[in-house]
Amino acid sequence: MEGQIIIVKLGLSFIILSILCLPTLGQTTAMDWNDRGTALGSQGKYDEAITAFDKAIELDPNYAEAWTNKGIVLNYQGKYNEALQAYDRAIELDPNLIISWAGKGFALDGLGLYDEAIEAYEKALQLDPKYAAAWNNKGNALNGLGEYNQALHAIDKALQLDPDSVEAWANKGGALVLNHKYDEAITAFDKAIELNPKYAEAWTNKGIILHHQGKYNEALRAYDRAIELNPKYAEAWYNKGVALEFVGKTSESSVAFAKAKELGNTDLSGKKDWWQFWK
């Protein structure tokens, strides 16, 4: 197996409207169903949340917040086209609902439509220039366009507004990697880990950089920590296999690759070659 490595795309910070208590039995207003959907969504019960939001919309088709919350859950499910429809309806009803513009940008980013995503984030920032999550997500979209310096500027703006944003530190690390500033990237990932020691993706990305620097044992420790946090993390198993292969532990690397394959990492076609990526 050739020395390939997967660069993990770090998740964008996701925005949820304030979560209220579940409605008591007998309450049937649109607001009650919206509150119920928001609570269900926060519990990861996405299909049930969608049903609740649909009920709210059925009772009040002009309920912009319910359309927005539906879009948020659809984003969580990776149903970006459906999320866009929900956000567009919310924006039609209330063009000044900031979270709708930010959510629309998230969906467009998920579809790889980075220019349009940036436009949506900029609209959110016009409405609230201090919206740290929108700055962070705009930076991620700029990374997608290859505008790495602009991405860093946007992410740094997010960190000025919210210095404890784990996602912004992680995204900054990713942008620094793409700028070939590896030591600074490790510092950024370390900050993300300091803020959230259970952030498996940050551990994996730190391992990727250490691997590139030839620090294979340190990289292996980072991958092992990611796997300890999330034993079903296929990319961490795969990256561990690559590192083991580099230090000549072929039997152990085969076990790691097999585990990655078992967890669904079976299609390596189209992945960036390790040396091509880091050249």
Fold topology:
Blueprint: H1 30-42, H2 46-59, H3 64-76, H4 80-93, H5 98-110, H6 114-127, H7 132-144, H8 148-161, H9 166-178, H10 182-195, H11 200-212, H12 216-229, H13 234-246, H14 250-262, H15 274-278
Helix pairs in contact: 1-2, 1-3, 2-3, 3-4, 3-5, 4-5, 5-6, 5-7, 6-7, 7-8, 7-9, 8-9, 9-10, 10-11, 11-12, 11-13, 12-13, 13-14
Key descriptive features of the protein:
279 residues, disordered N terminus, mainly alpha, 0% strand, Serine Threonine Protein Phosphatase 5, Tetratricopeptide repeat, single chain
Brief synopsis:
By secondary structure, the chain is an all-alpha fold. It has a domain at 197-279: Tetratricopeptide repeat domain (Serine Threonine Protein Phosphatase 5, Tetratricopeptide repeat). The protein has helices spanning 30-42, 46-59, 64-76, 80-93, 98-110, 114-127, 132-144, 148-161, 166-178, 182-195, 200-212, 216-229, 234-246, 250-262, 274-278.
Mean pLDDT: 86
Q: Low-confidence stretches at least 5 residues in length (pLDDT < 50)?
A: 1-25, 267-279
| Rg over alpha carbons | 21 Å
What's the name of the CATH homologous superfamily of the domain at 197-279?
Answer: Tetratricopeptide repeat domain
Instruction: Give the amount of beta strand, in percent.
Output: under 5%
Q: Number of helix segments?
A: 15
Topology pattern, helix = H, strand = E: HHHHHHHHHHHHHHH
Give a quick account of the main beta sheet: strands, pairing sense, barrel closure. none
Alpha-carbon distance between the two ends = 20 Å
Helix content: 55-70%
Q: What structural category characterises the helix and strand content?
A: mainly alpha
Principal-axis shape: globular
Second CATH tier, the architecture of the domain at 197-279: Alpha Horseshoe
Q: How many E strands?
A: 0
Find the CATH topology of the domain at 197-279.
Serine Threonine Protein Phosphatase 5, Tetratricopeptide repeat
